[in-house]
């Protein structure tokens, strides 16, 4: 009988919304964090990108509840 080793991977997922200026931000409680800055921090902490999914919504314009363009990125860390 062999010995089994089981490794669990941590997974985190974040959604970034497109702003009026064309940049993507992660919505925080009291601030906005840019997507580039956040991804850079995650990669420097040893996380790696597992998947990336984008969704094109309608432009918000004068419709406050219209869907925005979003990007969802899943990170994994062994």
Query: On the 0-100 scale, what is the average pLDDT?
Result: 84
Low-confidence sequence ranges? none
Query: Sheet bearing the most strands, described?
Result: 5 strands, antiparallel
- In helices, the fraction of residues equals 10-25%
The spatial strand order of the largest sheet comes to 3-2-1-5-4
- Residue fraction in strands: 35-45%
SS elements, strand count: 5
Shape: elongated
Give the number of domains.
1
State the order of secondary-structure elements, H for helix, E for strand: EEEHEE
Q: Over all CA atoms, what is the radius of gyration?
A: 17 Å
Query: Span from first to last CA?
Result: 26 Å
Structural class: mainly beta
Task: State the helix count.
Answer: 1
Describe the overall structure.
With 78 residues, this protein is mainly beta. 13% of the residues lie in helices and 41% in strands. The protein has one helix at 35-44, and strands spanning 10-18, 24-27, 32-34, 48-55, 70-77. The two termini are 26 Å apart.
Provide a short characterization of the protein structure.
This protein is mostly beta strands and 78 residues long. Helix content is 13%, strand content 41%.
Which secondary structure elements does this structure contain, and how are they paired or packed?
Elements lengths: L9 E9 L5 E4 L4 E3 H10 L3 E8 L14 E8 L1
Antiparallel strand pairs: 1-2, 1-5, 2-3, 4-5
Entry keywords:
mainly beta, elongated, 1 helix, 78 residues
């Amino acid at each position: 009988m062999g010995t089994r080793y089981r490794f669990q991977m941590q997974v985190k997922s974040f959604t970034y919304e497109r702003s009026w200026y064309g940049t993507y931000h992660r919505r925080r409680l009291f601030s906005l964090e840019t997507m580039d800055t956040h991804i850079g921090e995650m990669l420097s902490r040893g996380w790696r990108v597992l998947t990336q999914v984008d969704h094109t919504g309608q432009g918000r314009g004068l419709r406050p509840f219209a869907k925005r363009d979003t990007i969802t990125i899943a990170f994994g860390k062994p």
